Amino acid sequence: MNKHIISLLMENESGALSRVAGLFSARAYNIESLSVAPTDDETLSRMTIVTNGTDDIVEQIQKQLNKLVDVVKLVDLTESDHIERELMLAKVEAVGDARDEVKRLVDIFNGRVVDVTDTTYTVEITDSRDKLNSFLTSLSSIKIHEVVRSGAIGISSGEKILAL
Amino acid sequence: MTGAEIVVQSLIEEGVEHLFGYPGGAVLPIYDAIHQQDELQHILVRHEQAATHAADGYARSTGKPGVVLVTSGPGATNAVTGIATAYMDSIPMVVLTGQVPLPLIGNDAFQEVDSVGITRPVVKHNFLVEDVKDLASTIKKAFHVATTGRPGPVVVDIPKDITVNKIDFSYPRDIKIRSYHPTTKGHSGQIKKAYELILEAKKPMIYTGGGVILSNASEELVRFTELLGAPITNTLMGLGAYPASDKQFLGMLGMHGTYEANMGMHHCDVLIAIGARFDDRVTGNLEKFCPDARIVHVDIDPASISKNVKVDVPIVGDVNEVLIELNKLIEGSDQRLESGALGSWWQQIEEWRAQDCLKFNRDTDTIKPQFVIEQLHQVTEGNAFVASDVGQHQMFAAQYYGFNKPRRWINSGGLGTMGFGLPAAMGVQLAHPGEQVACITGEGSIQMCIQELSTCLQYGLPVKIITLNNGFLGMVRQWQEFFYDRRYASSYMESLPDFVALAESYGHVGIRVDKPEDVRQALIDAFEKYKDRTVFLDFIIDKEENVYPMIPAGAGLNEMILV
Predict the structure, then answer these.
(1) Helix axes B28-35, B3-13, angle to 10 degrees
(2) Does the predicted interface ipTM exceed a cut of 0.90?
(3) What gap in Å lies between CA B214 and CA B59, rounded to an integer?
(4) C-alpha–C-alpha distance, residues B11 and B18, integer Å
(5) Strand partners, B241
(6) Does B179 touch chain A (CB under 8 A)?
(7) Under a CB-based contact definition with an 8 Å cutoff, are residues B261 and B253 in contact?
(8) Contact, B210 vs B239, CB < 8 A?
């Protein structure tokens, strides 16, 4: 079971998202995260799906996605070098010693504190999923009130492009 | 032109002659437009499910797309079973569903359902028309998508206000969909590799499915099989693609396939799969499937390749185009399969064939279902169109009719939809007015769409309904006998109607037959004396006859239960 990041361009039409989501549930494929938004070309949406499965299953996922009439182009980013980013907002308890500790950790993970109260920090970090997970782990005893993550997006490294 | 007139004109532009449907509030404008022209004939069914099955039978028997028109809400939901049936068997179909007016969508309006949402998992694609200016091009796209690549049903959901709005009409000549480019030409390198692998075979086996029929590739398949001299088996969906009377044909394979076909599959060393999708009813236990075989797989749908069974040489393309190229390659080459090895392989196959796995007891007082099918074959000289329902009778028909031509065997293979037979037969009969059309069914299946007897009368469709009546849901009962210790839970059909009287009440001919010696004459009467009438033949058959051979679930193809 390997993690794969599938990035695709699809027609920016109503119902296109439900075709993809429906495909994953109908065929019992795993879906860890899904993010979608229009691109610079307003007729196209770019979707990033993080999934996992054996090589055979991931091959099927790609074929089935390609079969959807609304899907224009597709790439498995994990097949080559790529840049992966996910945005996380986390509201954590920040009282006593924890106030400094959280700030220190946020600096280490290249994040920012974007909102402050007497008892909480709201932290913003953008990085790979793994890094975000590490940040949450490193908070260890510090109480996390709330976590919001955007789901990963990604792009190929170098000159390789996914476009029409 | 109004949207409704555009719908009708677009269908006419597409060459549609028959439209199966049922009116209702949301499609009244379209029905009004249909009423005011006479190029397009509308066939009024008695239930929307039947409209889709009839269009499906029409499509399967002609190769042209079937077209359906139903209203919103229950009209659309009733059509879903037929849409799913067509989807599972890759049948080209365009289904127009009425929808509540755009401003009411999402308001839980009267007869509103999310038709696009409900049908999404069972269509090749679907559309909601949101502007009358898109109507003609959307219908064009629907026909294009439904009929190209791996065919399938396409739904076009049309809100009522769109059908009333006006715009100038021009039907697009061709349409480009930037995200849709099915591959039809097989990769030449792969085709060469396939032939190289085939030449290494000592025990080759050709296994073909519905894809051969869908791509009209029978002629090329026959040539290919002849050139190789190899044995061939067809799936349930593929019957008729290769003449059943030919000696290279081993019959159907799979759960109720012949001994020789399944043993041939199990022992082959090179398997040539063409337009077939390694369905679970064909492969049995995947772990035990074709243990010694290297596999070539030709299919137009890349997602069908290596889905269930890993293959060695995949070829994505239209079956007919690939076979043409493959045949040219073989004809241009002086290399052939090694004849000594092929000879011993055939010897082995003949030993399996000598088992005569389809034999049945002919010396009985009760009618054997196999006998009825055999007699039907004789009386119709193997030339009838045979639409079937789902169950034991379907398997008997597949095993004993012996189809020699493609597009004559019309059955719901993938979804297994009871109720399919009669409406499908209506669609076939409508497309082939002078031909013999039989509907093989059971007393269970026929009652799922029996209301269509009324449609048969209205349009004078002389379908011959051959009911193998054993008073049981036979296939369910068979499984209960084998695997549930004969606990026949809800498989006994109590309170059956008098089918003869029922047929007569609809204005048809009803004939009951309960003795083997009367079977043949009843069939002759149906096809000759009552040639122009719908005839309901109620054959009272052996109550507990089973379909053999049978591969139990989880077993390998070499682990058949024989008689």
Answers:
(1) 60
(2) yes
(3) 10
(4) 10
(5) none
(6) yes
(7) yes
(8) no
